[in-house]
Amino acid sequence: LNILPTITYDQTPVHVGLAFDSVWNLVDERTIIITDSNVMAYWGHLLADRPTLVVPSGEDQKSLSNLEDMVFRLLAFGADRGSFLLGVGGGVICDLTGFLASVFMRGIPFAFVPTTLLAQVDASIGGKNGVNCGPFKNMVGTFNQPQFVLTDPQFLSTLPDMEFANGLAECIKHACICSAAYFDWIETNLEGILQRDRALLEVLILESVRIKCDIVSRDPLEKGERKLLNFGHTYGHAIEKLNGLAHGQAVSLGMVMANELALKRKMLDPSAEQRVIRLLDKAGLPTDTGLLDRERLLALVRNDKKKREDQIAFILLNSIGQAVIEKIVLHD
Ligand code: GLY
Fold it and tell me: Any catalytic annotation for residue 212?
């Protein structure tokens, strides 16, 4: 008997390491799959002959107009209040499926099978969903938890290296804010992780999922502690927008910038700062902040439409494994 780890948060079980085929025991015949063209190309054969709504892959699918189109397509499948949506894909698919299920006929149940490392350790956990409005990311959405998350590391075998590194940025973020022991473990095992050793991937995903679930169950609506998960994201979102980088790459640079700030404020030790840079580097993530246009980044951070105060809540490290929320007034 293979006993598999399941972590539960807010009554949502997250099954880590379960083979995809087990999903058919968890859903009924009223299930409609939502996936993208990429997953379809590599893994379409696993989806049996279930009704499947396929969207093109890419962040631009996260729009209200696409959502309306998806509603019409659901109706064409005969979807009603008794339907169940299963999102099989990366972060975009999780965000779209969660939001669509939350508002379709005022809400139907849904679940996720995340297929990228980023979605497995981050986007599938936590209940935030939504779509973008023009340049404003996740401007419309809800907090709503899936019925379950099934995470099968086999999907990572077809993930391009850069996509894999994007997910690793979030794992390193989890280690930086919560667990020095996890940071040590990633450092020690990085080579095997990069070779996608199945046993190491299971530990990696499990540990990150555990950290995120712990934080989210203590603060589901992001009133306090959950903000720690934004480590590297304040500058990261601005870098993503300004430099057109992928999320994980931008978060990597955002973490380096946050650590520079913590160093200036004499919170973080220089040797710890260097250790984080070395690990990000070895993971294949960018760390050279020298070429970034700091003035324009600052302007973007200040103009973030979700922020109402002059002060910006930055997540800074005291040490590896320990983060705090610092309100900072940004000067030019
Ligand atoms: N869906 C991602 C989160 O809630 O953080």
Answer: yes
Ligand 1 centroid to residue 319 C-alpha, Å? 25
DSSP result, 110-135:
EEEEE-SHHIIIIITSSSB--EEETT
Q: 106 an active-site residue? A: yes
Q: Which ranges of 195-293 does DSSP label H, i.e. alpha helix?
A: 198-218, 233-243, 247-264, 270-282
DSSP secondary structure letters along 309-322: SSEEEEEEEEETTE
Q: Give the model confidence (pLDDT) of 138-194 as tens digits.
A: 999 999 999 999 999 999 999 999 999 999 999 999 999 999 999 999 999 999 999
DSSP annotation of 15 reads: E
Ligand 1 centre distance from Cα of residue 208 (Å)? 13
Is pTM beyond 0.70? Reply is: yes
- How far is 17 from 150, CA to CA, in rounded Å? 8
Q: Residue 123: CB within 6 Å of ligand 1?
A: yes
Residue reference for tokens 């951070």: 301
pLDDT in tens, 92-144: 999 999 999 999 999 999 999 999 999 999 999 999 999 999 888 899 999 99
Q: How far is the CA of 89 from the centre of ligand 1 (A)?
A: 15
